[in-house]
Specification:
The structure holds two protein chains of two kinds.
Chain A: E1 10-14, H1 21-34, E2 39-43, H2 50-54, E3 63-64, E4 71-75, H3 78-90, H4 99-108, H5 112-128, H6 130-135, E5 138-142, H7 147-153, H8 157-165, H9 183-194, E6 199-205, H10 209-224, E7 230-237, H11 240-243, H12 247-261, H13 265-268, E8 271-276, H14 285-291, H15 314-323, E9 327-332, H16 339-352, E10 357-361, H17 368-372, E11 379-383, H18 386-400, H19 407-416, H20 422-436, E12 442-446, H21 452-474, H22 481-486, E13 491-498, H23 501-516, E14 523-529, H24 538-558, E15 562-566, H25 575-581
Parallel strand pairs in A: 1-5, 1-6, 2-4, 2-5, 6-7, 7-8, 9-12, 9-13, 10-11, 10-12, 13-14, 14-15
Antiparallel strand pairs in A: 3-4
Chain B: E1 3-8, H1 24-38, E2 42-47, H2 52-56, H3 59-68, E3 75-78, E4 81-85, H4 91-98, H5 105-108
Parallel strand pairs in B: 1-2
Antiparallel strand pairs in B: 1-3, 3-4
Classes of the chains: A alpha/beta, B alpha+beta.
Chain lengths: ~575, ~120
């Protein structure tokens, strides 16, 4: 494995959800520890399952992995980090200021912005802490800094000045204002990331066009902040030997090879390792030791019993959705589980039945919109582009609220509109506009990956509380977007998952988060089910068997109702193929 | 030299653009403060959500919070004495307290010249 050659101090694994980052990061950490190094494995994923992989409870403190000498693990829990941050601010005034005032401060500090910055703070501490440096030879991060966190490293010039000065008239820094002392730490972290002798980024992808495009985007974003030492791992490749054994395996092999052949040039330039698909689940030490070992072709062709999964189809779910005549259908789940595809499948199936449908996505990687646009009666398609919406919000605020300001005042406002928080507000406003339509037609919404959904709910909740406070006083009648999301008559949330341990666990965590927000998911959809596809190739049959226990868990423990969508021979792009996803038992 | 201290309610940020709806009063006031400072005024703002100790350590502010609650913020102190509460001052008021000449600025400045409370 090339990515392991003379490994530097910091190794970052990044990629979409479900591509196998955690397994690869764990396997790497084990390998380095067994080679005699002292290793700290860190997860920055709010839904970390590093603990589950090793069968150890880890959490927000460095914990030794007893089965592997010299290996230690830490799960940065953003919620716990945010709580610690709140305590740091509020602690000194508790008992000094009235209790209601203290509660008000805590409420203001409970937003997604605080959570993100607090987690970022812990992350940078690991890169710069001298105790960590002397105690460990390697720090392996499961999930690199992406998206939002990068923006924090690129604060507008005026803010850097503010932070360096240590105080002043707070510009729109939000919770950053309390962290001015961390400025030196941020600078040191940026330097560590930009130093190729200290930091290496490993982009993990599956051999799929969308995953590879996403990897190319991350490559560009992180190279721009100086993380230039990059490697690529293509994970879970179906071995060629399988391809001869059944049409599904042949189709998958062909698809994967075509995706690799069409890989973006910037990825092609990177040093690359291919990791073949394994017939076993990547949980437990024995399985992880196998992952990076280049094994001979998989078991004999006779192995693997045939599997017949009996599960409701997507079409069964859509029957119930269609009965209402209109409403909001939201697809939620971690990145990489196929939300966009399923949102499109639900939308085209509803439109096929002659119902008016608006399909909208906030996923920057969504490509189905182009495929579908204007190609079907009763269906309209739109995209909430976070960058476009933010720009629109800025212009709108400058035009209205900034109208009477002089040039200086407008410049100040313009600067503040670069706040890390405005994107959330802008996307929330676009989201509210769209869901208002659900009163008379179907609105099918695909939500962008990781964390984003929860940010959106958070903004929705904050808005609801604000409106409620103003209107309750007047005794007025009102409906906020939050009330709409909580009303099962108006909104149906479909949780999308794969029939694998980690994605099911992540979906269950998301369900718990939604319930805390007063939203009860309506159904679960198991996407890309190998078992539902009834494969004949032995490796696929083995995987199909592994799926059954997960499907059982979804059906009996997690979901009120569910459906399984089979892995298809052809990539589900275009109306015809999308309609196949909703099909009853083929 | 006159010192103006502004004690803001718990805000995400002082212009309010991070709020669910951008607040006109906050946007206007942020611009006015910027203007007054550029003209030599000494103004400092404290955000309840970010600097609560500044509220707790000032007896006047602490007493005000105990009596009137956070809903009564913002509170503006001029040289330590309460000058205004419950709304933000206009540019004219800031100018008067700080002894800054408003001059030609008023014409194109905020909507509230003089002592009106339209903001």
């Amino acid at each position: 494995m090339k990515f392991l050659d003379s490994a530097p101090r910091f190794l970052f694994f990044t990629g979409k959800g479900g591509v196998g980052k955690t397994s690869l990061a764990c396997a790497t950490a084990i390998q380095l520890a067994e080679a005699g190094r002292r290793v700290l494995l860190v997860s920055t994923d709010p839904a970390s399952n590093v603990g589950q992989v090793f069968g150890v409870s880890i959490g927000n403190k460095i914990t030794p992995i007893s089965d592997v000498p010299r290996l230690f693990a830490l799960e940065i829990d953003p919620e716990a980090a945010a709580q610690a941050y709140r305590d740091r601010i509020v602690g000194p005034v508790r008992g000094k200021l009235p209790e209601t005032v203290v509660k008000g401060i805590e409420e203001q500090l409970s937003g997604a912005c605080t959570t993100e910055i607090a987690a970022f703070d812990e992350f940078t501490a690991l890169l710069t802490d001298s105790q960590i440096a002397s105690a460990y030879d390697h720090v392996v991060f499961d999930t690199a800094p992406t998206g939002h966190t990068i923006r924090l490293l690129q604060l507008p010039v005026a803010w850097s000045g503010f932070l360096e000065a240590g105080k002043g008239d707070a510009s729109c820094l939000g919770p950053l204002a309390g962290l001015e002392k961390q400025r030196a730490q941020y600078n040191a972290a940026v330097q560590a990331l930009a130093d190729g002798r200290r930091s290496r980024l490993i982009l993990v992808a599956r051999a799929q066009n969308s995953a590879l495009r996403e990897a190319a985007r991350t490559h560009g974003e992180l190279a721009a902040i100086g993380l230039t030492q990059q490697f690529l791992i293509v994970n879970g490749l179906l071995p060629e030997t399988e391809a001869t054994l059944d049409p599904l395996a042949k189709a998958i092999y062909g698809r994967e090879q075509a995706a690799l052949a069409a890989m973006p040039d910037e990825l092609r330039a990177l040093s690359r390792d291919d990791v073949p698909l394994k017939p076993f689940n990547l949980v437990g030490l024995a399985a992880l030791r196998q992952l990076l070992v280049e094994t001979a072709p998989q078991p004999d062709a006779a192995a693997g019993e045939s599997v017949a999964l009996r599960a409701p189809s997507l079409s069964d779910l859509i029957d119930d959705i269609a009965a209402e005549g209109h409403g909001l259908v939201m697809l939620m789940g971690k990145g990489g589980v196929g939300k966009t595809t399923l949102a499109a499948a639900v939308a085209v199936e509803l439109a096929r039945r002659g119902l008016p449908v608006h399909l909208t996505t906030s996923d920057p990687a969504a490509h189905l919109t182009e495929t579908l646009h204007g190609s079907m009666a009763h269906l309209t398609v739109s995209r909430i582009d976070p960058h476009g919406e933010t720009e629109r919000y800025r212009q709108e605020v400058l035009r209205t609220k900034g109208a009477h300001l002089d040039a200086q005042g407008r410049a100040l406002l313009d600067e503040d509109l670069r706040s890390p928080c405005t994107e959330e507000i802008a996307v929330f406003q676009a989201f509210s506009r769209v869901i208002r339509e659900a009163g008379e037609k179907f609105v099918v919404m695909d939500t962008a990956p990781t964390g984003h959904t929860l940010l959106l709910l958070d903004a929705t909740g904050a808005y609801h509380r604000e409106v409620a406070r103003m209107l309750d006083a007047k005794g007025a009648h009102y409906t906020t977007p939050m009330m709409q999301l909580q009303d099962p008559k108006r909104t149906k949330v479909l949780l999308v998952t794969l029939a694998e341990t980690t994605p099911v666990l992540e979906a269950a965590n998301l369900q718990a988060d939604l319930r805390r927000a007063g939203i009860e998911p309506w159904a679960w959809v198991i996407n890309n089910s190998v078992a539902a596809a009834r494969p004949r190739a032995p490796l696929l049959r083995k995987r199909a068997q592994n799926e059954l226990a997960e499907v059982e868990k979804v059906a009996t423990v997690h979901a009120r109702r569910y459906a399984a969508v089979p892995l298809l021979e052809e990539e589900p792009v275009g109306v015809e193929r999308l309609l196949k996803l909703a099909d009853h038992d083929p | 030299m006159t010192t103006i201290h502004v004690f803001d309610p718990a805000l995400c940020c002082s212009t309010g653009v991070c709020g669910v709806e951008a607040d006109q009063a906050l946007i206007t006031f942020a611009a006015d403060v910027d203007w007054a400072k550029k003209n030599g005024a000494q103004i400092e703002r404290f955000n309840l959500a970010q600097q609560p100790t500044a509220f707790a350590d000032n007896a006047t502010v602490k007493g005000f919070l105990e009596r009137s609650g956070q809903e009564a913020l913002p509170l503006i102190l001029v040289n330590g004495d309460i000058a205004l509460a419950g709304r933000y001052p206009s540019r004219a008021e800031l100018a008067r307290w700080a002894g800054v000449k408003e001059a030609a600025e008023t014409a194109q400045g905020s909507c509230c010249g003089g002592k009106t409370s339209c903001c």
